[in-house]
Amino acid sequence: MNEALWLLDSRGRFEVRSTSRPTPREGEVVVRVRAVAVNPVDALTGPVRRFVTPWVRYPTVLGSDVAGEIVATGAGVTRFSPGDRVVGHAAGQERVRNTPAEGAFRNHVTLLERVCSELPGDLTFERAAVLPLGLSTAAAGLYEADQLALPFPTAPGTSRDGEPRDGGSRDGVVLVWGASTSVGSNAVQLARASGYTVIATAGRKNHDFARSLGAETVVDYRDADVDEQIVRAVGSRQLVGTLAIGRGSLAHAVRIVRRSAGTKGIASAYPDPITRLRSLVERPRGIRISSIWGGTPVVSPVGPAVYRDFLPQALADGRFRPAPEPRVVGTGLAAIPGALATLREGVSATKIVVAIDPAPAPYAVPADAVSADAAEQERDQ
């Protein structure tokens, strides 16, 4: 039996229901879900949810962060086989996919191969599950052509253009405002893997955490002179890009960019109407502000550049680590609403995770017309 946690309407009513087992199409895989993480977008309700994802039809299945085992592969998928352990970005809530069959909160989920990575044997599903949406959002901000457009990260010894990638050896600095968040902790590591020095902000208790991810300098975002400290830390170097993560980050980022040499690009992970207005105001000063959408790598070249070409080796050799730390709050689909409630209470340098399917039944791809039709109808709801 396959089950999913269905969101019945935008008000936030959930129910675990039986559902059809998915059949992968070309470029897709089906994963037996072993762990999921929850994100702020999953916890939205009411008018805010309708504003952020107006295209979603109800009932639907939420969730972006999946770790588990491949049970079936579609046409054209050659790098995965049944039994492979993977982590992947479930794209069911993205406008271009928009199907509950690809929502993470289920026993078996359809994922796009292009945003899946194999896991080393010593990495648990619960630790891996913290990665996908935070990783995709950080990668979108750093690498998408309409964002900061920095060079892609590469694993050691695989530089695409002959330039050094390890150890922050490129000229220039990336500022990550909010390094202890899910997006920020991935952004610090990705920027380092692209060869840049990273200056970051975090609460004082998380400074060592941010440094352990590769930040050269970490400043407390609550300090009265935080902007001045960062400008001094950048010094005469070029600020090649800024990621502004979280409420209030954009105003600080603008003040810092105005006073620093560099490309004047800011990618904001808090895309609200104020971000758009600020972009128009700052444009005459040469400051370019863009709003990040974390699902963009699902369809752009950034997805495979990170999930296929970089992450598997970087996880295997320890050069990239899943961050922030997981906090497992329950087991099974029915535990997810409680996990969302915990997330709404606030977390710091941690990500809320739920273990799924600890003793799975054997999987069989639907072979009869009735099952296949049911899976198709679920995709098209």
UniProtKB/TrEMBL annotation:
Domain Enoyl reductase (ER): 12-354
Top-level taxon of origin: Bacteria
SUPFAM superfamilies the record matches: GroES-like, NAD(P)-binding Rossmann-fold domains
Pfam families reported for this sequence: ADH_N (PF08240), ADH_zinc_N (PF00107)
InterPro entries: ADH-like_C (IPR013149), ADH-like_N (IPR013154), ER (IPR020843), GroES-like_sf (IPR011032), NAD(P)-bd_dom_sf (IPR036291), Trans-enoyl_RdTase-like (IPR047122)
Protein name listed in UniProt: Enoyl reductase (ER) domain-containing protein
Organism: Frondihabitans cladoniiphilus
